[in-house]
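S., here's the first fold you wanted:
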Amino acid sequence: QVQLVESGGGSVQAGGSLRLSCAASDYTYYSYCMAWFRQAPGKDREGVAVIEDAGRISYADSVKGRVTISKDNAKNTLYLQMNSLKPEDTAMYYCAARDYYPCAMQVTLFRYWGQGTQVTVSS
């Protein structure tokens, strides 16, 4: 069964840091394209970062320079390191996976999703 489980969310003050984790089952299939998305109340779900099996990485302009996406194949885990957090980063963060190419930061391309982990940044 395909499972994606996020963890690491929490409440921090502006300027703080968090590292989100996503533990994935059937990693062989879903490591080809993995991504982080987020959704704030009243807003559409938006891409944060995506990483391909070959290592190519893309970031949303809103987080570029403040976040780093990475993965540990030995642990079947995807990470999102977030620094210099801002109140506008407050959202539910979701891990997503795609088992084939193309790999792009687009919600409709992903069919495997975790349940999300809440990130709250206060000023």
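And the second, which I think is the more interesting of the pair:
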Amino acid sequence: QGQLAESGGDSVQAGGALRLSCTASGYTFGPYCMGWFRQVPGKEREGVAVAYVGGDYRDYSPAVQGRFTISQDQKALYLQMNSLKPEDTAMYFCAAARLFDTSGRVRCSRAASLYRTWGQGTQVAVLS
């Protein structure tokens, strides 16, 4: 079936940087949509960045565009987070899905409700 696991969360000062990693067990990364999501108490889970693993598509939340970068290699999915702000404080999750449009093309969305395979999360705290 497969399982995802996040790592790299930490407590950092505003302006600092972190790199989150997401590894898969039970399967290898393939032609899937994979992404990073975050959630804070009392708010909806937010799609931070998604990527088509097997293509070039990348999509970022406007809140992180220019500061965060999603990438992947043969071993893991990554989220490089630079210039961190206190409002970036959240539990960060990675997720995977196979999403297609009506023509059969992969279409990766930042809507959390469309994703079915999730990790347990890693906590990021940005101190002011």
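Why I say that: The first strand starts at residue 3 and ends at 7. The mean pLDDT is 92.

Talk tomorrow,
H.
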